[in-house]
Amino acid sequence: MMDARDTTGTAGRRPVAGTRGHGPGNLARLVMVLRICAFSVLALAALFAGGFGWFASTVSHMTTPANPARADAIIVLTGGQSRLDAAMDLLASGKGERLLISGVHPSASRRQLQAATGGDKALFSCCVDIDRAALDTIGNAEESAKWVESHAYGSVILVTNNYHMPRSLLEMGRLLHGAK
After folding, report:
1. What residues contact residue 166 under an 8 Å CB cut-off, 6+ apart?
2. What is the reported pLDDT for 137?
3. Average pLDDT for residues 21-34, to the nearest whole number?
């Protein structure tokens, strides 16, 4: 006689519940994976917080040079009135031949910029160039590099805020190959 299980073709097969993997071993693996993921997230958060702390500490200790060396030109990245004033003061004191104001809003006129800086009209007219194309730090670096190359400048003074200086120097260094 034949066994009933043999007629259905299931002889020698494992029960379906045993192949699904719902046993205690798989629960332990799931717990281990969740622990690894949680540890990874905490480690990334700690790295981010530490990196931000390092950045904040570095930037807070930056100071404006009291008497910067003379350069061929001055570049100021827009974003604050004090930046424009500092750049105009450098230009007026002979620290550079020309000044590029990079990232000026398209609706701002030369006259408005000159009035905002309170600088000498003759100096502003002769020695200040305005870049309206740059929209961000990378754009500032690209437009500044074009300007430096077109005038064949070998050295520039960069004017921006302390928190913006590391990124600005990185982008400028990447594109200003021949200039210091």
Report:
1. 55, 58, 59
2. 86
3. 82
The answer on 109 and 25 residing in a single domain is: no
Query: Please, which pLDDT band fits residue 5 given cuts at 50, 70 and 90?
Result: low
Q: Give 63-96 pLDDT, tens digit per residue.
A: 777 788 899 999 999 876 688 888 888 998 999 9
d(CA 34, CA 85): 55
> What CATH number has the domain bearing residue 101?
3.40.50.620
Q: Which amino acid is at 53?
A: G
Q: Please answer whether residues 136 and 79 qualify as being in contact, where contact means their C-beta atoms are separated by less than 8 angstroms.
A: no
Kindly report the backbone phi and psi dihedral angles of residue 95, in degrees, each rounded to the nearest multiple of 5, phi listed first: -80, -10
Both 82 and 122 in one domain: the answer is: yes
- Domain ranges, residue 30: 16-60
Q: Are residues 43 and 131 in the same domain?
A: no
Number of domains in the chain: 2
